[in-house]
Amino acid sequence: LAELVQGLNSPDPAVRDQAVAEAEKRLRDQETSEEKEGESKTTVNRTLINTRASDVANAEAVNPDGFLAVLEKDAKERAKQRKRNEHLANALKEKGNAAFRKGDYVTAIQRYTEGLEKLKDKQELYTNRAQAHLKMQQYEKALGDCEWALKCNEKYIKAYFLMGKAHLALKHYSEVRQCYEKILQIDPQKERLFKDCMNEVNLEEKRMKDEERAVKEVESGKLAALSIRELLQKLARPGQDVLYYTGGIRLLTGAVKDCTEQTLFRTNNGFSILKDNKVVRRGFCAERKNTGEVDLSVSLLLLWQAVCIGNEENQRLLLTHPDVNAQLPKLLSSGVSEIQKETLALIALYSENENGRRLLVRHQDLTDWLQVLMMFVNSADARAGSAMDVLSDLAEEDRFKTQCCGMLSTGALPVFTQLLASAKLVNQAALARCVGIVGNLCADAVIRRQMAQCEECWQACLKLVDEHFDVSTPAYQECVFAVLGLMMNLLLESNVTIQCLAVDISGRCMSLLGDKDGRIVTRATGVLSRVLPASSLAVEEVVKGGVVKKMIKVLKAGGQITSSYAVKTLSVCTRSNRQAQEDLVESDKRFSVLLKVLDSENEMIVGNAAFCLGQCLAVPGAATSLLHSNVVMILLKHAGGDATRTSVQENAAIALGKLCVAEPRHVLQLRKLNGLAILNSSMKYVHS
């Protein structure tokens, strides 16, 4: 009876229905039994008289409490059992998720099903299983799971979203819109998701209409349409050799000229060539291809380019084909130039637009792609440029960066280091682009951290800079420029490797400050501004090498970016190095350059210039040399100004205070300008 009551109270509709049926059956059986007893009664009174009335009375008195105790015990046991089941269901869900991530959707469905056997009202298991069904194109089953999830929670947004995906695959467009509208009703903040989903529905509906129009054109007897159908039928013939199929594929490629032919290719199961034709599949998937198989593979790649260019649906179908998905990275690494060239051209169709990149990231494991694409820097032909185009496009995707992180230290980073060390032997134009792309990837903190800790990578960068003086080609110049940019990005990190190499890094940059290419001078100055704070020894070495005089020369040449790096370098050097302070006073007579820099509109430049000036005023005679200048007015303007960087007010106020202490005659000018009040108000910015 307790089990029956438990079943009637179950949240699972199937269990409740079963319990109701069992209860009705028992009631019917009881009524039938009573009718039979009534028919067989006689006049003889067979009532059994219980002589132990007191026992019955006692039992009746005890039963209510006993019944409640049983109910309470049962409730506790059920709570414990549910907790155990929930733990088991969660474990099975994680196993299912792991299988799903590996693409093993059959195992994933099995694990989710086992989890539901433990806990039938766990909504996540239904939606996870629905996702796996969607991957296997089992759309009706996915709908069923979404419906069960909504029985568990009628406001479960994920269930409506996946249900919409399933309906979309089944071309139930009105149902799709209902699902997405329901999401917006539940959570109005999902408006962007709603719009994206509705756009997808509209595009899919338009695609279907295009297909219907193409089918009508076929039925009306258009020659081009019929030729595609006939060619596909010929390619479906079994028992032919590789040469036969290669010729058929080339003819088919020539027949695909616009979106109508692309649609006809799809609607006539053109993508099944690889799946249904054993000869074609074997040749395309062969590890070591003979000449005929190479021609076959190239022909297939050209065909797919023709049917996929500008056609998102064809791109999706091709990329979700298991053999194509598995073979793309292998084709890139094949070493056969013709295959690599056309594979890169096919991938470029995806990478050059946002939707295509999303398809690649979603359906391809791109973990090794950074390493594979980098290897094309060794190619002397157009493959190197094509590979860099693809890599540059992929670098815009955050998910690509995330996938790169996993194998960077053991995969791509050693390859990249070797390319830098062999800069004189590789395609230098491609290497420069590759270095620039890696520099952009360093915007990701995880990638940047791993690279900044790699001493071999730093040494390779320094070797490339060293060889700059032996190789003066424009292509090598671009490599140096790119490497300096990479070094600047890596120097956003601070670690032991950088501290140990700071002297070497700063020494190479000093040697580049006389380069004829102003871009290289700018970046060399930028690297100095970022590496010097890591090592006092490096500061001493560059000061001995005349860095102050060089920076004053850079500041005289102008250019806001270069000036920003130069004045930052000076501020680092003059912070704690007396020789640097004296060199600045000697090199910049009456601080004419610094005073000019103090008039900049760039707050960072002004703040660092004020700091340098304040540090140098400790040098005897420095403050006196400024007596007939407008330095007091300039510093007052910044100390009492409204710069967003408070370091501007702070450094200007400190410099003004040091100026008046070192040379009291500046106080007269300060008083004339009512500067004491301004200086007093700006002291709130001074921390020490």
From TrEMBL:
**What protein name applies here?**
TTC12 protein
Query: What Gene Ontology cellular-component terms does the record carry?
Result: centrosome; cytoplasm
Report the Pfam families cross-referenced here: TPR_2
**Keyword field:** Repeat, TPR repeat
Upper lineage ranks? Eukaryota, Metazoa, Chordata, Craniata, Vertebrata
- TPR repeats span 157-190
Whether Repeat counts among this entry's keywords is: yes
Any GO BP annotation:
sperm axoneme assembly
